[in-house]
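Provenance and format

Records in this collection were gathered into a single text stream. Each protein contributes a sequence line and a token line. The two records reproduced below are adjacent in the stream.
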Amino acid sequence: MLLRHDISKDAELLVLRHENAVRRRQLARSVRCELGHHPPGTEPPSFTEAPSGT
């Protein structure tokens, strides 16, 4: 049988792992937004060329 100390230590480790996983997902999401992530096979719009016909 595990002692209370061992059980609380295991619970704390579980919580810390969960917090780390959440932060990793949040960081990955913010990096994708900053880099202008687009789904594979699609090209981002190009804003470097002036519209023609002016």
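Adjacent record:
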Amino acid sequence: MLNAFYAMPLNAPLAFKLTVARERRLEIFEHSEQMTLIALILAIKSRLPERDLASVAAAGMLHDIGELHIDPVLLRPGHPLDPDAMRHIYAHPMTAYLILQTYPAFHPEISTAVFEHHERMDGSGYPRGLKGGEIGRIGQIVMLAEAVNGLFEKSWHSHGAARLAVMLKMNRRKFDPELINHLVRLLNSGERARTRRSGQRLVRVGGGSAQSIGRSVPLVAPRTPHLSARGDRGTLGGIRQPAPDRSGTHPAGDGFPAGRAGCLHDWNRKRHRRAGRNPTHDRRIAPAGLRHPERGPSSLGGASG
């Protein structure tokens, strides 16, 4: 994939435009980077020749240079757009095309793909409303990568991979179904890998039973008070934890599973063991002359079991 970036044709005027985007319009530059990575993944999955990968990378990095010629105020989120402002925005693929066609190394393959990056297979795109085979192969890859990246930027944290995969499946008429299948498989495999990493850990809860949770519990718990001297499971600092509600979380509403107290109990058992204590009954080795809270003065530097 990196070889495609290295092989990407880039002359001084276009390199200057990318520098302006990076320094003055960082949102455009970062969007182009992310979109290019998605486009290259799609191109590799589609088994495009090595030479075409460089063209895909160039089209991805340069597809929004037309937006550098739009008033930044018009592109701010929530800014009201009248018909005249919408015409300016809809014209940015044509602006980029007119810039690129002046350089033979970028015309017609790369410039045409940039011109098509907002088209749709069913003819609902812009600026020309092309359909199906009227859109070039690189243009089809770039337009899907553009749409997917925009979807990720807006919805990834709230929807997640599974929801995004469903949204892609619902738009098969607008994009090449084969390309959508590549992305859906990647999203599903990434979701399965994330689930495996988080694990279905078994945590101990009150009464010695086990409960499976969908997310991992931190291996290092925060500093907490000792358990009660009786070492009761389900108690923390001598205070019994409230019973979980039907949703499996404590009424405190902190979002942790009901096994949180049991996890802290197991953690405290290990901490006591490292400190030389009996974790079963929380018997502490008291220095000579000091009174143990339950067994009175100790002798010879400790209390026997």
